[in-house]
Amino acid sequence: MERQAVIALPAGESREEDSLVSAARNGDRAAFGCLYDRYARMVHGILLARVPPREVDDLVQEVFLLALRQLHGLREVSRFGAWLGTITRNRANDYFRKTIPDEKVTEPVDENHAESRTTNSTADQEAAMILGVVRGLPEAYREPLILRLVEGMTGPEIAARTGLTHGSVRVNLYRGMQMLREKLAESAKGASLA
């Protein structure tokens, strides 16, 4: 599926964002901080759709550091969201190209921590299972669903931040939700038979 760029932000907000990108490009760290605030959920969601959840927070920081270093190369300031999304997807791909040694980190566990882990383990297992199902969906549906369901972004906000058309986001969310319901129903059926 080819992505199409669309500016879906209201004109005033679009100009404000263009000004922030231009200021950040000229070295204004506060402007870049504002861009971080606007786009952190999108970057987090894209990464969550692609890499292990425990790696997402660190990779969000890496994406923004990389974007800060490469901001001078952005040709059209109005394409910042789509450009940042591309950097995020490329960083997720790079994550899997690296060979990561299998290190087991052991941390001391106190009684309260152990108790909270058992209380949350059922919810954590369910969330991990649902995330696994979402991550098994086609890419066109995976990202919009994560951005909507996990990051809490609206359809128009997803369109504005990612550079997709509002119509394609709406269709992808609708079809993705249908597929997610079907897959979860299949999982529930399989679990009840076991």
Written overview of the protein:
- The protein is mostly helical.
- The chain has a single domain (11-100, 126-193), classed as Rna Polymerase Sigma Factor, Chain: A (Orthogonal Bundle).
- Helices cover 74% and strands 0% of the residues.
- The protein has helices at 11-25, 29-48, 53-70, 80-97, 111-135, 139-149, 155-162, 166-193.
- Helix 2 (29-48) packs antiparallel against helix 3, helix 6 packs across helix 8 and helix 7 crosses helix 8.
- The longest helix has 28 residues, at 166-193.
- The protein is globular.
- The chain starts with 10 loop residues before the first helix and ends with a helix.
- Residues 1-8 and 103-118 have low confidence and may be disordered.
Helices and strands, in order, run as: HHHHHHHH
Question: Helical proportion?
Answer: over 70%
Distance between the termini: 38 Å
**Mind telling me the C-alpha Rg?**
19 Å
Q: Please identify, by name, the CATH architecture.
A: Orthogonal Bundle
Note poorly predicted spans: 1-8, 103-118
| Beta strand % | under 5%
The shape is globular
Question: Which oligomerization state do the chains in this entry correspond to?
Answer: single chain
Reconstruct the topology from this structure.
Layout lengths: L10 H15 L3 H20 L4 H18 L9 H18 L13 H25 L3 H11 L5 H8 L3 H28 L1
Helix pairs in contact: 1-2, 2-3, 2-4, 2-6, 3-4, 6-8, 7-8
